[in-house]
Amino acid sequence: MQLRYGFRLYPDAGQRTALAKAFGCARVVFNDAVRAREDARGAGLAFPAAGELSRKLITEAKRTKERCWLGEVSSVVLQQSLRDAEAAYRNFFASLKGTRKGPRLGAPRFKSRKDTRQSIRFTANARWKITEAGRLNLPKIGAVKVKWSRILPATPTSVTVVKDSAGRYFASFVVDADTAADAARMPDTDRAIGIDLGLTHFAVFSDGTKIGSPRFLRRAEKKLKKAQRELSRKQKGSKNRAKARLKVARAHSKVTDARREFHHQLSTRLIRENQAIAVEDLAVAGLGRTRLAKSVHDAGWARFIGMLEYKAARYGRTLVRIGRFEPTSQICSTCGVKDGPKPLNVREWTCTACGTHHDRDHNAALNIKTAAGLAVSACGAPVRPEPVLAQCEETGSRGIPTGNRAA
Predict the structure, then answer these.
(1) Is 178 assigned a catalytic role?
(2) Active-site annotation holds for 176
């Protein structure tokens, strides 16, 4: 398994200038590759191979007056930019054929020098290294100061230098993780848990624990609105507008960083304490088009489940996703009777069959755990309520499962 470790960089003025040159050269080579491919497609010719593009766009271009400045940066950066163009076309064609998972991708587009996020990548043959003083020595850039927040578990295979929209610099190292050693470092446990993700509470566990929703975006809305209003009043193309845009980006980056830190801490805690975790496969993209869109995106369910997924694979845990159409809010976790759909404002209800009073989210978490096969009886056998036939007047009773609620 490959993992990324990110660290903050603090380049000086000369290094920032060198990085800007590297970003610009990488962008030009990428755009030249896209233009060469599009020209070949328009002429009805075969796409030029990677070797031919490398010779024309890098080796021969450096000898011309128009592209001689490509020699001022590391050649590895330019080669990796060509690889990025190759990967973009490869993913595009795989998406057209339907062999690539996820949403459909469009054809690669030209990069702009006004893009707020820029990056370059150095592989091992670029001869970059970490000095004894703890600085990152990059070819034709120099030894850049790094804020080390932790120790790298192994020797990195590559490093990507990123400048984000807030003007911050980061180094992202790719490390081959030893999953066997990581799993041995995390002791086994006999605990299993079901998690119901929501908006009133970010997560409710099957053991009754409730994690409040931090609402990072909602809490920062007042400051964001003020910064955005100041940006809208600045003249386009002016330096004051650039400063205002940077202020807005920094405000958004604080929200993003706080949300990511919350997700990391909670996911690590769950992986450490539980051997198996069950979650619901929510339709986040669909919910993002409803009136709850801002709250759904503020919660960041998809990123949180992604963290659980890779950490479970790394530390030898089990993550089970149940279908989004499982009626977890309609089934009594005690007797298994399906009590029908309920509007979102109903947070508590009483089962008409057994009389058990349920908290909506806790009951859903218990049903998620049961549906994943993680609940066990007193004798140790898996517990799952027997299916109950729907009544004729019940919604979705023609053999079609009814959709689950949003929270």
Answers:
(1) no
(2) no
